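fyi for ur records
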Amino acid sequence: MNSIFLRIAAASTALAAMMCSCGGTGVGKSLDEISDATSGDSLLYYYGQLHAVHFWDESASDSTLISEQGRESYLRGIEAGLKGIGNDEHYNAGLIAGLEIARNIQQFRQDYGVELNPEIIMESLRYSLNEDSIEDEEDISMHFYEILTRLSNQKDSSDRTASEQALAEAAKSQNMQKVHTLLYRKLESEGSGNILKDGDRVNVDMKVSCKGHDIAVPIPKETKVGSPYTNALINEALLSMKEGETTLFITSAYSLFGRKCTQMHLIPSDIISIRITTGSLDNSLPGSGKNNYESQDTPAAL
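which gave:
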């Protein structure tokens, strides 16, 4: 480990002890409010702010994280990690690996719905580290991915069935028209132009929500219908619309986001509302405005 981060870790441990002795996470201080701050103090302060930037980036897709309770929980976790680091580099390496493994186990439970016993991995590690050498890595990987693929397929099948059933029931209750199995629509404002087709460039205003909460889904204001950078379901929705139209679509969290929906704290069968308003077409002659469009047509894969 780089020596500067060893010093940061040591200073962080001292900082955590100070924070705990002062009782809780508190509201913190600005750098100007820290008396006689050294260069190391300033370095560590900015290091903390970089983590804060990452926190706010993460909170954009997780409304529970941004809550006061979510922020307090996050800070308590940071404190626990800071206090756990010691002078034994081997222990520190194991601690960091353990935290990563624990997080992966938790994420696996959410993604696959399979309960895992953490003690099993300890048995595996104890046994494997007591051996003179490990089994063939290729053979181990083959068994691991064979089981993972089977569980993944089972989960996908279960989520797909549950989400399609929930979506059909929601569409029936809202008297919506079927676009296909994964997408339903209800016209809110009739368009006056032509039906959109692949390759059309059109101005789009889109709002995505679930149970009244907005979900950030990146899409350029000027969108190319059929673009590989736009989610397939959004493209399907656009292909069912005219210029100047407003339509409400519904789909399921699993259909729109895949297994990533669990990382967004959505259940695969949650119903997602997508309200799209299309503007006028901008199908310029080949080459006209091409560079301007391509600068906006950034990947918006979900």
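Confidence is low (pLDDT under 50) at residues 1-24, 285-302. thats all i got for now
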